[in-house]
Amino acid sequence: MKNKNLTALKLSLTFSVCSALAACAAPASTQAALDTSSGLAEQPVLSSRSKAVLSDEGMRFRDLDSDDALTPYEDWRLTPEERARDLTARMTLEEKVGMLLHASLRGAGGSFDRSVDSYDLGLVDQMVNRNHVSSFITRLTAPAAKFAEENNKVQEIAENTRLGIPVTISSDPRNHFQYVPGASNVGGGFSQWPEPMGFAALGERNVVREFAAIARREYRAVGIQMTLSPQADLASEPRWPRQSGTFGTGPAMISAMVGAYVAGFQGSDDGLTPDGVITVVKHWVGYGAQPEGFDAHNYYGRFADLPGRSIDAHLAAFDGAFEAHVVGIMPAYPVLRHVTLNGEELEPVAPGFNRQLLTDELRDKRNYQGIILSDWLVTRDCNEICRAPTKEHPQDLSDVATSWGVTDISEEARFAMGLQAGVDQFGGIDDPEPLLRAVRDGLVEEGRIDRSVERLLTSKFELGLFENPYVDPSAAARILGDADVQSRAEIVQAKAQVMLQNNGQLLPVAAQSGRKVWLYGMGQEAARAAGFTVVDNPADADFAIIRTEAPFETLHPYHFFGSRQHEGRLDFRPGDAAYDALIEAKAAGLPSVFAIFLDRPAILGNVIDKADVVLGNFGASDKAVIDAITGRIRPEGHLPFELPSSMTAVENQDPAVVNDSRMPLFPVGSGLQY
């Protein structure tokens, strides 16, 4: 029977407005006092586009199930946990199974192309209404206001469902320099900071937290509520292509930096706040210990070796995340070999299917109660093109699968095994049928599904999305692209650089008007803005600046990720364009600055005898590099990993052990001052 004391009202769309440095409008509860024992104590801001609003004793509530009565999950005065339990009990099996899928918001026409600036809303409608998906990753790159509008459209579709469950929208990192599909994004007005490895080089925990708090406001401004970052992986194999997204090689340093990152994104040291962003720390565990550095997105990189007690350091790197009460953990891809954990040999399946790693080690030993989100496509079959693509049949996204260690069991059995291991949600999946079959066939009990659904719903309630899932596009446009924020980010880019060599005290180079510079690998604008005259001929220059990245090879050109990742050698050789430019500058008698992006630990033995200055960066604009060269901002970084002396030393080191190559050219911690 309907409550006669409730009056159904239509509420016009209401947004909180935020300043350039304030949290934007996303959560209803940002303007309410929070009582951790009994939910919210004051009226939050509500926003509805289709559902009515109920009034009760002067308070307002969204009628999300459209029954003209105040259902417990609609009552923001209850705790998030109470609301989650109530809503879970009202959901059908199909609705609950859809909650366990984390799909992709594709661009117009079903495209994964990041240049598309709008979603395929018809496809979104199908996934939300037919498959009951309520978590999505976005890879859209669009101006801030447009981005916010697109995410609002997704929330509007979700509002119209039977229970009005809002969508959680996630993203890979957006505030750095590298763009790798499935790992990171760039563009769209987000402030641009060094890669996480740059924060490790600077070594200032407060700077990491400052960055994360700014990024949090930018994410929430456009309607993103979850970040699939940071990486707490130990960068123990020098050839591994994903180490720039880590905080280096020291477990204690990584732990501290990850803790600061989590606190900044989630909004506090004690877990998620209403204006926070769910942080998913990855990859639990051992991902950085891959032989030859071959990444486990690929079939040829599906193993990691951690003999003896080498896994201990990889585990310790996650400690700071747990101290900050991280909401999400993502298991790693590779099957871990040669590992004994708690006296037992580790089962030879990927961590997303490994009960010893997820339940025994993570949930029981560390008392972790948050969300476990699998990495992408771990339940999909790896076909022949997935295993061995060719020039005639290269691997594309439809052929990507990462079901390592469980390729010989059925898809529904993989879902069941993942859930029994401890996974709550499966990344990159939008088809609920295999999981539904697993429940109907008795491989998974519905009660196990319920536990994951409650965890996932609790986070939505904590963020206030059930009160207000919408954002203000005009506020997003003000927050993203803020000049003061970007200026601060560029200062950090410059300071995080590592000066490895400064022969003859060439740096700082005075930015005298008319001083002539020959450039390779960078634009002319920043040099000219600093007062230099750019010349085309080395013979006419006073000095040279050569920008490059660490050497690499494309060893697996027909694999989707292998074709995009930096693999193989780390040493410079004749024929490498930047190395040849350095030789040209040397032949012209020019003092030279060799500015290198250390996305991997480059071998510089045949560089230091030709360059006067070697300046390493971990993501820096041309302006930030020029600022470090001129002394406008002094480089203060120290190497967060060692730079090996030779490829032979790299090949002989242990992929699971950090900084263990023989006689490194630059040991970890190297860095000069001027």
Give an account of the 3D structure:
With about 675 residues, the protein is of the alpha/beta class. Among the domains are: about 190-480, TIM Barrel (Alpha-Beta Barrel), CATH 3.20.20.300; about 495-635, Rossmann fold (3-Layer(aba) Sandwich), CATH 3.40.50. The chain has 20 helices and 23 strands. The strands form 6 sheets. It has an 8-stranded parallel barrel with strand order 6-7-8-9-10-12-16-17, surrounded by 5 helices. Strand 2 and strand 3 (about 40) form a beta hairpin. Helix 1 (about 80-90) crosses helix 14, helix 3 runs parallel beside helix 4 and helix 16 packs across helix 19. The chain starts with 6 loop residues before the first strand and ends in a 22-residue tail after the last helix. Residues about 1-35 have low confidence and may be disordered. InterPro entries: Cellulose_Degrad_GH3, GH, Glyco_hydro_3_C_sf, Glyco_hydro_3_N, Glyco_hydro_3_N_sf. One of its GO terms (molecular function) is beta-glucosidase activity. It holds the Pfam family Glyco_hydro_3. One of its GO terms (biological process) is glucan catabolic process. Keywords: Glycosidase, Hydrolase, Signal.
